[in-house]
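Final paragraph of the annual report: two paired records, presented back to back.
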Amino acid sequence: MKKTVAIIGCGPRGLSALEDLLIAYSKAENIFNLRVIIFERTGCFGSGQVYNSEQTSCNWLNISERALTLSGRKDINLQGEIIGGFPSYKAWKGNTSVNKLNIDVFPQRALLGEYLEARYSSISKRIKELGVLTAYQNLVVSVNHVNNQFVITDETQQNFKVDEVVLTLGHQPTKAKKQIENWKEFEATNDAVKLFEQPYPISGVFNSNFINSSSRVAIRGFGLAMIDVVRGLVSYTNSHFKVVNAHTQEMVFYPGASCPKKIIPFSLDGLPMAPKPLNKTIDNWFKPTKEQLKFLISKITKHTAQPENIRSVDFLVRAMATIIAEVFLSLENKSVVHNYTISKLENIIERYVKNDKTQDSVLVSSCLSVKVIMEKYVGMATGENLISLDYCIGQVWRHCQPTHYKYLSYNKFKKSVTLEIVTLDEKLKRLTFGPPVASLQQLLALINAGVMSVKAIDDPDIECTPKGWLLDAENVEHTANVMINSVLDAPKVLDVKTPLIRQLLESGYIKPIHNNLGVETCKNGIAKSNIKLPLAVLGRLAQGTLLGVDAILECFGYRSKNWAKAAVRRLQNQED
C-alpha cells in the first residue's frame, strides 16, 4: 500500500515536518509504503528564502548563538535502513557563543541557512536514494481534493496525486497597502524617483543607479528589516563602521564616496527597538524564576480552561505585570531610583503595556528624542545605565514568550480575544524582538555623522512632490528621491495574494480564525473548514491559532510532531 505526503514549502518548518514525519513513520506498527513530495519554489531546501545561505552578510539574526538552542536529529531506522542523525546548531557551529569580551554573538542569517541546508541534505540524499523523497523547485498554484486524493498543480501545469498535504509556507505577499499603491502611481509618473516595495533581497535594492552620494533615501519602517537595509546601504556604498569602545560596541561611521546624502527612516509610532542585553550575565537579571513561570502557567491554564468567560487579554497582562514587578524589584540598585510598592509597579506595567506613551519616572519617556531613547536603551543593555521599567518589561516578556507560545496556542477564546493576544504580542516586539547592541550603535553612529535623520520619524505626513517624497514640510532636506518599504507583510490570510492561498480559501479548504489573522487549525495541524480533509497548515499562516510564528525555535518542536504522528495514523487508516 503506497501513501504519499506533500510538503509545500521547505524552509525550517518544512524540514522539521519532513524529519518528524519520517520519525513517526519509523515507529509505525502497520507499515505502509511511504512517499514524500516536497515543493520549494526558491530552491533553498531547508533554509527557505529567509535563511538562504547565499544572502548578503548585512542580514543578521536577532537571536544570539547562546539562545539558538536548536536540538539535533537522532538516527532514524527506516525499515532497516539507517538515516544518519545531525548535530544541534551549537555542536555544528562549535563553541563560539561569546567572544573574548563575554559579549553575545549574533550570527548572520546566512550562517543559520548553511546549517539548515546541510541538515536537509543529510536526510534528503539518503531517502531520495531509497525512493522515498522527490523534491521540486516549483511553485504550487492549486490543491484540489478529488476522489479521496489531493491533486496538486504546479506553475508548469504538472499534476501530482497525494494522500496528505501540509503547508509549511513562510512569508507570503499580500495586497499592497493604499499608501504603497499611491507611491507606485507617483513613481510611474516621475522618472526622478525610485520605489522599492520590498526590502529583500537587499542586493536587488542596491543594484540601482538611484543609490549614490546625492541620494536621499527614505525607509518606511523602523524595525529589524530597516536595520538590515541600512547595513546594506553602508556595505554597498563602501562605507564602514569602526568600533571605538569594545565593551559598549560604540561606533563611528565613515561614509564612502557613494554614501547617500541622507537616510530618513519613519514609522507609525516613531519609537525605536530596544536591544537585547549584551551578555548572559545581564540577560539573567531579567530571567524569571521557575516559581514565577509556574505562576504564569497556572494563570494561563486557569483562563484557557474557561475560554467562554474571557473577554479580553487583561488576564495575561495582569499575570505578566506581577512577574515583571517582582523582577524589577529584584534589580534593586541596578534599576532607576523609586519607592514604589509592587502593586504600584503592577499598575504602571499594565498601563504601559496597553499604551506605550504612558509617562512615569520609572519609564523612558516617549517624549524624548529617538536618539536619546536609543542611547538610554543601549546603556541599559550594556549595564552602563540604570534599568527602566519599560526595558525590564520587554526583557522579562521575551523570557516568558516560550510559555505564552506553548499555552496560548490552540486556545478556544472568542475571536476578539485571540486577536487581542496576537496584537499585544506583535506590539511588544519593539521591546522583545530587538536586535543586538551593535545594531543600535550603528544607527547612532549614522545619526552622529549626520547621515541619518530621525527628525521626521514619527508618522510623517508624506507629500509627493516633483523632487520626491517630502517627509517634513518645514525641511526640504527631508525630500527623498528613493523610498524603501521595509515593513514586512503580516500573515493575514485574507490579504494573501498567492494563487494557492486564494484557491484554498475560495474552495473552502481553509478559513481564517479571525478576519485579521491566519488559518484556523486543530492541534494536529489540520485546517478547520466545512470539509474534513487531511490538509494541514503549520507555521506563519496559522497565526492566531499559533503564537510565535516568526520565532525560529518554534519551527522545530511539538507542533510538527503532533501533525506527523496524526498523519501516520491517518495513513494507516486509523482514526485520528
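The closing record of the year follows.
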Amino acid sequence: MSARILKGKEFHPNFDKISFGEFLFECCEKYADRICQIDGDLDKSETYSSVKTRSTRVALNLQKKGITSTDVVCFCSTNSLDNSIPLIASSYLGAKVVNLDPTLSVRNIQHLLSLVTPRIIFVEEESLKLIEKSLKGAKLSCEIIVFGKSTKHGTFAEMTLPCGDEKAFKPSKTDIDDTAVMFFSSGTTGLPKAICHSHRSFLQIVETSFYCGYDCRSILHFTTMYWITGMAILGRTFLDGSTRVFARSMEGEKTLQMIEKYKLTSLFVAPIYTYQLTNVPNPERYDLSSFRCLLTGGTPMSTDQYKKLTQLFPKAQVLFGYGMSEIGLLSIFHPEDDKHLIDTKVGSCGKVSPRTLLKIVNPDNEEIVGPNQEGEVRAKSDAMMTGYYRNDSAECFDGDGFLKTGDIGYYDDDGCVYVIERIKEMFKYQSWHIVPSSIEAVLLEHPDIEETVVFGLPGGAEGDVPAACVVLKDGCTTDKEEIEKFVTERVSDKEKLRGGVIFVESIPKTPTGKLIRKEAKEIAEKFV
C-alpha cells in the first residue's frame, strides 16, 4: 500500500450556530428531570434542572460583576457537585473558562495564572492559600470566590441565592469562533502554554466523542476539569442527558463498588490506575453486569494487563484512545464497527476518529510515509485548537494546516493507529533510537514491579544509556540484578538497562497518570 492520509467517518455537524453556553443551557432544559451528576464519594446527586437553576443564579451574579466574553474566569477545585456550576454559568456569558488542578505547585500555578490573567477565580476552601500565594508571586490581582467558608472573600453559596429575574435569563449571544475553553499543555517537556478552543472546536470534540460509539449513559471519572478529559466528559454527558459520576481519587475496590451501586456503563481511567482494579481480591463479589466500556489512554498498557482487564470485565470492551488537548480524540476503536479488531489489535489506539484526517510524516524530509512505517503523527480536524493564548502557535502546524503532534507512530494495513513515543522522550544509543515506553512495557511484565519509568542517562561517546526508576509491589524484595537480567532476556542489545535500576517509592506523574520523565531522570541522576 502506498503512502496516504487516513480519514475518519463523516457525520452531520450540529454545532455550527450555538455557543458552548447555549448548548449547556438547552441540554439542562431538555433533560430537566434526569440525574446530571453524582458525587461518588458523598453519594449525593443533582438533576439537570437543579444544575440549570444554580448556574443561572451564578451567571446573573457574574453579569452584575461585569463579566462578558472578553473576560477569563478561572477555577481551582477537586471534583464536587459545586465546581462545575460556575464554569457552566461563565459559559452562559461567553466568558473564557480555564481550570487549575489543586495538586499543582505554587510555582506551576503562578506560571499558569500569568499566562491567562483571570478576572475572577473560584477556588475550593482547601486550596485558597495555594491560590493566594500564586497570585502574589505572579503579581496579579483578581477577585476570589470560595467554595466553602470565608470571611475575607466572597463565597459560592452567596452567588446561588434566589434571584428575582432568573426565570427570564437566557445565555448571551457569542461569536462561536471566539475562545470558549482553555487547557494547559502538559509541560512534561517544557513550560506549559494555554491551549485555546473556540465554542465551535470544543463542541466538535463533544460531538465526535458521541459518534465514536462508546456507552456513556453513566460514566465515572477521577480527573478534574483541568484536563480535557474532565471537560469533554462533562460535555458528552450533557449531549444526550447522561449521568456523570465522579470521585476525587482512584481506589480499586471503591471503583467496583460504584460500578455496582450506580449501574455504571463506562469508566475513564489512565492505564497506570487500572492495576488497582485488577488487584482487587475476589472481584466476583460485585455485580459488574452493567459495565460496558473501560476507556483509557495517554500511556502504554502491557498485553498482560489488557488481558486481566478483559477477564475482570467480561461483558465490557477495553478501548485505548489517542488524543491531545490541542485537538481532542484522534483515534479509538468503535465498539460495534470495529468489534472484530479490538481483541486482535492489542496495543493499537484504534481507527481515526470521525471527521479527522491523520498522516504519518518523515520529520526529516516532510514526506508522507505508508503503512507500517514510523514517523511523526500529524492530524487535522474541526476540533483543532485555534492557537495558544497570547502566544504564536504557527510552528505547531505544517504547510497543509496539520497539527504536529510530536508523537512517533504508524498505522497498519487495516488502518489501525499505533503511537510509540513522544519525539522528545526518545533518545539515541549507538545512533539507534531508543523508545522508553517499549522497555517500560517489558518491565511491567515482571510480577514484582508496580510502576516504572525509563529514560536515558549520559553514556559518553555512545550516547544515552537506558535506565529505569522502579516501584516494587508491597512485600516484594527483587534486587536490581534480577530486574536487569529479566529485561536483558527480552529486549535487543541496545535496549539493555546499562544505566541501571533505581528503586523509588513513587514515580513523578501528572494527575492523569502520565509519567514525567524529566523529573524521574533528575531523581535518578542523584544516585548515579
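The mean pLDDT is 91. This concludes the annual technical report; the extension proposal builds directly on these records.
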